[in-house]
Specification:
disordered N terminus; alpha+beta; 5-stranded mixed beta sheet; homodimer; 7-stranded mixed beta sheet; 17 helices
Chain lengths: ~475, ~475
């Protein structure tokens, strides 16, 4: 593949889905309510089909339960390198053929590596689905991983890391921010891997990783489109059915030791703008003791950063003009405990300290006064609308099913989302703010620009999360 | 073994060596200059013998090139758990017999796990050496690792962790301090391992670890005492010779990404006293580009913390009475890049901020004014004396040979030490202060006591380094 775009897990996927939906979404929103059909092959492959008849197309995605959070130190980045190698050929289809066949059939395809999954997808006219499935089944077990191509591809990945992280002061700050917040939790490591680790990966390492994780009993096939579920099941059986399952070994749990006070790192690098990151340790759906809490955090995120009338945009950016931009990031579907992240860039003439104070004030406000029912209703409507709008895209529907299945929550959670968000009360929002947005579990990172000295970095991204959290092949 | 004492790598070993030397050292210091004899068996075992005829005793140590810095996340603490299991019996000698035989023969024995090594030792009347070697050879390859005993021992190790780390606010602070300073470097992980990792270790994990690392070609036998080197070689050949070597796989290098600014963590826990840790990233002999730098740092360490007339004791503790205690820690023989650590406890009525300011002033002084030749000479005399005095102990001599061989520096470095220290100039001390004691590579940890609320922790240790850096079996 030539085009490699960065993709943050939810945000960037969302962005991408919107782009795709422009091309794909012909009809209305009834697709969101279509029935989901699930099957399982004897070799363990799960097959999930969702019908969407608005256009004669199909999205096919294969999801592997492996990603950066499965990796160990010394081998970080290996899932992403393997994702690259998946385009380097099998015995039957040498390097590049996969992409050529899909293109020849008018399709698009790509792949991405996340913290908790690695996924490959194709979009095609519906009658071309067999082509995609045949190719995916072939490379699930028969990758050749030639040492020479591996060596070359490693340089491509290193260049990707240089471009996306090492030459991006914000991305570097973000990487060290996560590594400081988490000491034992696997989110400590960046998805793309530490540079030194990538440099020392061997084709034997990647071969072992492929062998350990790429198997039908560690994958989910998600197909959304104008297709008959039984037909899809028949195809899956035909192409994936003959594949042998692997003996899977669950990775060791790596839970984080308690944090007992704030952490702060300063990163001084040549950069144009200062940058602030604040992270709070929060539960996610997988781990939450009270499963309303992640939804309350989702609403809280909307209150601060749910569009132009949200508090950050209204008060910090437009109102007091202390921040040039400010946002939140929270992934309730993460496999492991995660951070609720706030990021902000000071407006010209303002300091990091001033932005920090302004953000702190917003957090205090969330804690001291319950959000009004009116504001809450508006936010909920927006959170829900954005979710429903996203479902307008076949790609995004498949994506959400894939994520939910891969982290073990089950696709059914998708249907609960709207109702769970609607049920959140002002008291619950206040409760999670008081419980989790506290110094005890906080990590702060400040990027303090050094003079650029002629060395102009590539344009800063709005959010480095997108740079380091997902990698499009 | 019943008695389990903590041991910091150099400091505590030093303390222990002094205790032992009181019992052992009969003669003068000429032992330090005795010739070292080295042999290698066909199976790869290195044998190093140093004669010391001052008493009819012998110290035998077997050093394995494996320790916490060889471990991967999810499996941290496994070297230390294995060290415990080494006392749980072989086919020939069931659990406890090893220790009973040594005791019956009037000997002492124990073991310790460090970051870069795991070592086992015995001290005996010289004619009993064959007994120790026979037993060590037996457990190098024939450990039984019974699952039941493993399960029980894991609880012992967890209790050790509770006692030494989880119930020790300083040790917890120290652990998180190192984890913050190093993100990819293996010193990120504590020697004893993260609690969650220890809990999930299985006997199969430990069996694999044993199989991978405990082999003659990954070990060094060090014998110091009133013995004939040829005799020792013969014994080693007889007992260790029949053992099969292993195919060793070098661990992946895990070098630390550049740090671009200061990091600071606050740990708020019920405790009696506040505590300050400041760490600077520094080179060690293994990695130093200029190999005088580690010696200059060693001298610098002496200037600040080389006894009662050193600057910390004279100015911070006795003079301005701002600190109740203040010290430095630096291990020039570490396998990986490490920290130069300063720790301090505020005197009653003084704050962490005041101590911090006082320490910063001392560092500024090192940078701005070269140390006088007079002060330097006094410090060097002390550093050298302490080194020579330590060599008075057979145990310590063996220990230093073992460490130097195990990290790959070679025992010959021992002989260079005095001369290298003596060669350090005031300008060199100033140069390393200016180059390394800087914000860019600094990590600070502050323990801020919360009220004890009836829960009295066990007496705080002077240095938590001793708690987490080494574990006596």
């Amino acid at each position: 593949m030539t085009g490699r775009r960065p993709a943050g897990p939810m945000r960037a996927i969302h962005a991408m889905a919107l782009v795709l939906s422009a091309a794909l979404a012909a009809g209305a929103a009834q697709a969101a309510d279509a029935k989901v059909h699930t099957f399982r092959l004897d070799n363990g492959l799960k097959v999930i089909v969702k019908q969407d008849h608005r256009a004669p197309v199909v999205v096919s995605q294969i999801w592997y339960k492996v990603g950066a959070s499965y990796e160990n130190d010394g081998h970080t980045g290996i899932s992403h390198v393997l994702e690259h190698m998946m385009f380097k050929g099998t015995k039957r289809h040498p390097a590049g053929e996969f992409s050529r066949i899909i293109a020849r059939n008018g399709g698009r395809e790509n792949a991405f590596t996340g913290r908790d999954y690695t996924a490959y997808f194709q979009q095609l006219a519906k009658d071309r689905l067999p082509i995609a499935l045949k190719l995916e089944a072939d490379r699930m077990r028969h990758l050749t991983l030639p040492p020479k191509a591996f060596k070359k591809e490693l340089q491509v990945v290193l260049e990707e890391r240089r471009m996306r992280t090492d030459d991006q002061p914000r991305a570097l700050t973000y990487e060290q921010f996560y590594a400081t917040a988490f000491m034992a939790n696997p989110y400590h490591h960046p998805i793309i891997g530490w540079k030194n680790d990538i440099e020392h990966l061997t084709d034997a390492d990647v071969r072992r990783w492929y062998h350990d994780w790429y198997a039908p009993n560690n994958a989910t096939l998600v197909v959304v489109g104008d297709v008959d579920p039984k037909w899809v099941y028949g195809l899956a059986k035909r192409y994936f059915g003959p594949l042998e399952p692997s003996k899977l070994t669950a990775p060791k749990p790596r839970s984080e030791p308690a944090q007992n006070g704030p952490r702060k790192i300063t990163v001084s690098l040549p950069a144009e703008l200062p940058y602030l990151l604040i992270g709070y340790k929060v539960p996610v759906l997988k781990s939450a003791e009270h499963d309303w809490e992640p939804y309350a955090l989702e609403v809280l995120s909307g209150i601060l950063d749910g569009g132009d009338s949200a508090r950050f945009a209204r008060d910090l950016v437009r109102g007091r003009q202390v921040a040039a931009s400010a946002g939140t990031d929270y992934d309730l579907y993460a496999l492991h405990n995660d951070l609720f992240v706030i990021d902000a860039t000071p407006a010209q003439g303002h300091t990091l300290a001033q932005v920090r104070t302004a953000v702190d004030r917003e957090i205090e406000r969330l804690k001291s006064r319950p959000v009004s029912q009116k504001e809450l209703d508006r936010i909920k409507a927006q959170v829900v609308a954005s979710q429903v709008y996203q479902r307008d895209s076949m790609f995004y529907q498949a994506m959400q099913i894939g994520i939910l299945e891969t982290v073990g929550l089950g696709w059914q959670r998708l249907d609960e989302y709207v109702q769970r968000i609607r049920a959140i009360t002002p008291a619950q929002v206040q409760a999670v703010a008081r419980k989790y947005l506290v110094d005890k579990g906080m990590t702060v990172a400040e990027l303090k620009p050094l003079p650029l000295q002629g060395k102009r970095p590539r344009g800063p991204r709005a959010r480095p999360g997108g740079t380091v959290d997902g990698h499009m092949h």
